[in-house]
# Entry
Amino acid sequence: MNHSINEIQIHNYKDGILTTTDDLIAVEEPLEIKLIHGITNERQLMNVSITMRTPGNDYELAVGFLFTEGIITSIDQLKSDQLASRHLDFQNTINIECNQDVVIDKSLLQRNFYTTSACGVCGKSSIDAIYTIAPGISSKENFIVSKDIIIQLPELLSTQQNIFKHTGGIHAAALFNKEGLLLEMREDVGRHNALDKLIGNYFLKSSDKKIIPDNSVLLLSGRASFELLQKSAMAGISIICAVGAPSSLAVETAIKFDITLVGFLKNNRFNVYSNPQRIQW
# Structure
């Protein structure tokens, strides 16, 4: 049973002919993320976020969200006994439990998150709010990717987008190495959820402060918005390519964090909005 796709019956009108047929659509359901923290006898269960997502990779989504919001910083902060069950998905509430010696900045939890599948965490008005907690870009300046590899990325991604093939209504975030080899990909109805799942996957495999593999390129199947640049900056990603357009705040964020930002990557063309020195022309 695929929890990410639903089959429904639709009426299809084409070339003057009305037919009834079966169709596949991407599932969108709420996921409530809760955080358990505090010392013995003072453990607290706090509601952190409700996000509208496509079920699947929910634990990755939850920890990816907590990491990219600066609430947790290392896998060592999480109780090890819950990691064994991290592949259990398709529940609409997930509890992430921290070790007792972990101190959580409660100011980061005071904001009530409600994340829609469309916009991500909206309403952040300043890049400075994340600049103080983002670790910065760790990739060396000599990390250079050929323009010929960049041009190939959308097609390389499309061959791997299983849910998109069936529904046409899904976003993807994918990581490639500089030779164009797909390292990992995640899909979701929310572009920010897809990225949180991708980053969460690497977060759960990391052994130190470095999350994303060096010399890797992020590809976004839609537009490049501020919240996606924020999440990428938190993960230390230095090259971001988007099929769609960037927003003005996304460009400002890319400049602030020394990220190479590529937009309108399709049909054998693209624009570079910041730090073009990482692209070999």
